[in-house]
Design brief:
The complex is a heterodimer of chains A (280) and B (393). By secondary structure, chain A is an alpha+beta fold. In chain A, a hairpin with a 6-residue loop joins strand 2 and strand 3. About 2% of the residues of chain A have low confidence. In chain B, the strands form three sheets. In chain B, strands 2-8-7-6-5-3-4 form a seven-stranded mixed β-sheet, with helices on both faces. Chain B has two domains: 132 residues, Aspartate Aminotransferase, domain 1; 239 residues, Type I PLP-dependent aspartate aminotransferase-like (Major domain) (Aspartate Aminotransferase, domain 2). Chain B has 393 residues and is α/β, with parallel strands linked by helices. Classes of the chains: A alpha+beta (280), B alpha/beta (393). The interface between A and B is medium-sized, with 33 and 27 residues.
């Protein structure tokens, strides 16, 4: 029998916020029937789209999965999305007193559902689904494993299994998990997570992301040749830009536009974007 | 987590209550009758006599000769002893036939043989059908000249499915292959007659038939080559070293005497209770499925899957009412995957995670079955109400 805290038992037997919010602002679904636990989290924001005013869950899983879901919904109510996004699996476990170490993956599932729900609201893709699948049995990627190693300071394959389930099936990936542990612990920071094509972005989100790519990548490159670029407008998939400096008079400006800027934006923001020069 | 003092114990395949008569028989051997059965003096000798009587009772229950009974510490030791003895007695044979649904005592021993012995072994794990039964032809075809031993459980601990051990032992015998059966779940629940069933080795565990934990038996048929597992003194005619666990052995003797007496009751009263429970659950709860063959099954076991809910959560809700059972879910198996038995049977994940095993004994009564039937539908409905997979039904 698992050694559950009174708080885990209490949340399991009297779970808060069971159900699904109608017309939710964000929906996050993680886990699967095959894996033995799954969680569907829905939340509603206030009129200003600033604070989470309601959160509900539906969970298939053991006592600690149900308790973690219940705790999560209680924890995020009243928080802004930025505050909610900072909640870690350790926070969920701490809220419940603690979880048996073999059950830490239940709190990780809670955090993942929250991330998925926030990403769903923001219209961006979840990075964790990307990456190399390390554990075939439970479909866990290297990104999830690296993050768990980093965040919870994991040192052994067993600990990684407790937190992510990776390695809990056939065991063929144990060597790879060992490699990941030594890689992460050596560099001391998680590998950069490549963002691939986020879907269903709002215009404001798109603009922010495009400007970000311009700031980090495009402008520094163009400036080397005395050029520059400015974002004029975003209309659906059309990104209207104005080339400045030497670029404005450059004969290869169309190449720069299509082969470089458009390519970068498609890689890092959305793969359907079309870059055009402002005619004004 | 129990909110009640009432305990409804339906987990008898995990362990059983020590019968009051068994405990009573044992008590003097913890106090005044503390002699060593191997001693030359009368004081120890009377203990030796009691151990010998117990041996007789165990032999009687399975229709064997008392000399064929070796006392061990548990079912696991019996299994290890049998398989390793057969391998050591025939060093030229390195193939083993077993099944995918064996208890870990056999399954994990077989997968550890190479590192344990330093020799390469081949292990054939026979598959089972979706109802947990085995194909006899497939068993026969798996036996080779190289096969040292076939080890097949008499009845499965999770589903209660009974294998045709008589036929299998005869096939093995005709092929000159030693046959071991882990009969830990079968002894005391169904009739076992070793005069008719030509097994070479058979394992028994005391605590599964109302004797205490920490005592087991390995039956070894006369003239079967044998190599001891525990080497030491002359106890058990040199076949198992170590001073006997006297009180428990005497308790097991008493338990076997009771089991012989209760055998009819197991197959009538207990079976009727189990059937009522099983039929009731399947009728009252939608999406409930029986795991295992309908009839070729121990009279006390019902393994039922409640789709779209998880076993540990079910068990903990049952626990509030004092109802004790087991689950084949991942969260209760100590690993992250559901029961290897249910997976071997091809039970879908939707059902495997929500499997509950109810295993009854002669100490259960109809009131208890009614109480469980009253409580289970609410427990399952409650959990399904929060299951993301149930809403779409």
């Amino acid at each position: 029998m698992w050694d559950y805290t009174d708080k885990v038992k209490e949340h399991f037997l009297n779970p808060r916020n069971v159900g699904e919010i109608e017309k939710p602002d964000g929906v996050g679904e993680v886990g699967s029937l095959a894996c033995g636990d799954a969680l569907k989290l829905t939340f509603k924001l206030d009129a200003a789209k600033d604070k989470i005013i309601d959160a509900k869950f539906k969970t298939f899983g053991c006592a600690s999965a149900i308790a973690s879901s219940s705790a999560l919904t209680e924890m995020i109510k009243g928080l802004s999305l930025e505050e909610a996004a900072k909640i870690t699996n350790e926070d969920i476990a701490n809220y419940l007193g603690s979880l048996p170490k073999e059950k830490m993956h239940c709190s990780v599932m809670g955090r993942e559902a929250l991330e998925a729900a926030i990403a769903n609201y923001r219209g961006i893709a979840l990075p964790m689904a990307e990456g190399e699948v390390v554990c075939e049995c439970f479909g866990v990627t290297d990104l999830e494993i690296r993050r768990a190693i980093q965040e919870s300071n994991l040192r052994t394959v067993e600990e990684v299994t407790n937190f992510t389930k990776a390695g809990g099936g056939c065991g063929k990936c144990h060597d790879r998990i060992m490699e990941l542990i030594s890689e992460v612990r050596k560099t001391g920071k998680p590998q950069l997570i490549p963002m691939s094509g986020p879907k269903r972005l709002t215009n404001i989100q798109k603009i922010k992301m495009i400007e970000d790519v311009f700031e980090r990548t495009v402008r520094p490159t163009l400036k080397k040749d005395g050029g520059d670029v400015e974002l004029i407008d975003v209309d659906g998939d059309y990104v209207i830009v104005s080339l400045r400096g030497s670029c404005a008079s450059c004969t290869k400006s169309q190449t720069t536009l299509k082969e470089y800027i458009e390519k970068k934006l498609r890689e890092q923001v959305l793969d359907t974007l079309i870059v055009e020069e402002s005619k004004v | 987590m129990s909110g009640t003092d009432r305990v409804i114990y339906m987990d008898n395949n995990a362990t059983t209550m020590v019968a009051p008569e068994v405990l009573e028989t044992m008590l003097p051997y913890f106090s005044e009758l503390y002699g060593n059965p191997s001693s030359m003096h009368t004081f120890g000798g009377q203990v030796g006599k009691a151990v010998s009587d117990a041996r007789g009772r165990i032999a009687e229950l399975i229709n064997a000769d008392p000399e064929e009974i070796i006392f061990t510490s548990c079912g696991t030791e019996s299994d290890s002893t049998a398989i390793l003895a057969a391998l050591q007695a025939q060093p030229e044979k390195r193939h083993i036939v077993t099944t995918r649904v064996e208890h870990p005592a056999v399954k994990n021993l077989c997968s550890s043989l190479d590192s344990l012995t330093g020799h390469k072994h081949r292990v054939t794990e026979l598959p089972v059908e979706s109802d947990g039964t085995i194909d006899l032809q497939r068993f026969e075809d798996s036996l080779e000249d190289e096969t040292a031993i076939a080890s097949v459980m008499w009845a499965n601990n999770e589903t209660g499915v009974i294998f045709p051990i008589e036929e299998m032992a005869k096939i093995a015998k005709s092929r000159g292959v030693f046959f071991h059966t882990d009969a830990v779940q079968a002894v005391g629940k169904i009739p076992i007659d070793l005069a008719r069933v030509p097994v070479d080795f058979l394992s028994i565990s005391g605590h599964k038939l109302h004797a205490p934990k920490g005592v087991g038996v390995l039956y070894v048929r006369k003239r079967t080559p044998f190599v001891p597992f525990l080497i030491g003194g002359h106890q058990e005619h040199g076949r198992r070293g170590g001073t006997e666990n006297v009180a428990s052995i005497i308790g097991l003797g008493k338990a076997c005497e009771l089991a012989a007496r209760h055998l009819v009751k197991e197959n009538t009263t207990v079976r009727a209770l189990r059937d009522k429970l099983e039929k009731g659950l399947l009728a009252k709860i939608p999406n409930a499925l029986l795991n295992g063959h309908k009839t070729a099954r121990l009279p006390n076991t019902a393994n039922i899957s409640f789709e779209y809910v998880e076993g540990e959560a079910i068990l903990l809700h049952m626990d509030r009412y004092g109802i004790c059972a087991s689950s084949g879910s991942a969260c209760t198996s100590g690993s992250l995957e559901p029961s290897h038995v249910l997976r071997a049977m091809g039970v879908p994940f939707t059902a495997a995670h929500g499997s509950i095993r109810y295993s009854l004994s002669v100490y259960n009564n109809e009131d208890e079955v009614d109480f469980v039937l009253e409580k289970m539908p609410g427990i399952i409905a409650n959990l399904r109400a929060m299951s993301p997979f149930w809403q779409s039904r």
